[in-house]
Design goal:
It is globular and about 40 Å long. The chain has a 6-stranded antiparallel sheet with strand order 1-2-3-4-6-5, with helices on one face. Helix 1 (15-27) packs across helix 3 (105-121). A hairpin with an 8-residue loop joins strand 5 (83-85) and strand 6. Helices cover 29% and strands 23% of the residues. It has helices at residues 15-27, 70-79, 105-121; strands spanning 32-35, 43-47, 50-58, 61-67, 83-85, 94-97. The protein is an alpha+beta fold and 140 residues long. It starts with 14 loop residues before the first helix and ends in a 19-residue tail after the last helix.
């Protein structure tokens, strides 16, 4: 289970920082690529043709939309005010990260990696660029 971060220092993550951290995390993942299939305002990150993250500007906020395990998704939304159901995605399997104080750098990286692992796990074994059961935070 992914652990939510409760930032007591009162610091607030800016939208540009949120997206930069997510983008950098995605760029390090094997087989990940970015494209603009929905127009220049959406950065869509895929692995082997399957979406695992979307960066967008929505109502003036820079957001990150990622895949999440349904149980983790529910827990994260209950503990982090800056994590909401996936914007324009399946609300059970996707979450949105918004700028704010309830998430930090490490949590963003962890959530991007987990989203990638979930998508890779759904690919046929021959198409998986990594072993999703072994890849993760311990390898970083």
């Amino acid at each position: 289970m992914i652990q939510a971060y409760d930032q007591e220092s009162g610091g607030t993550m800016k939208g540009s920082d949120l997206q930069n951290i997510a983008r950098e995390a995605a760029d390090e993942l094997p087989g990940a690529s970015m494209s603009h299939p929905f127009g220049p305002e959406y950065e869509v990150f895929k692995v082997r043709g399957k979406v695992f993250m979307i960066l967008a500007e929505v109502t003036g906020d820079s957001i990150v939309v990622i895949k999440s395990d349904p149980e983790d998704s529910k827990a994260l939304q209950e503990t982090c005010s800056d994590i909401t159901p996936g914007y324009h995605m399946n609300k059970k399997h996707w979450i949105t990260l918004k700028p704010g104080s309830s998430i930090d750098h490490g949590l963003v990286q962890e959530l991007v990696t987990e989203s990638y692992r979930l998508v890779v796990a759904g690919l046929p074994r021959a198409r998986q660029p990594i072993d999703p059961d072994r890849f993760g935070s311990a390898d970083r």
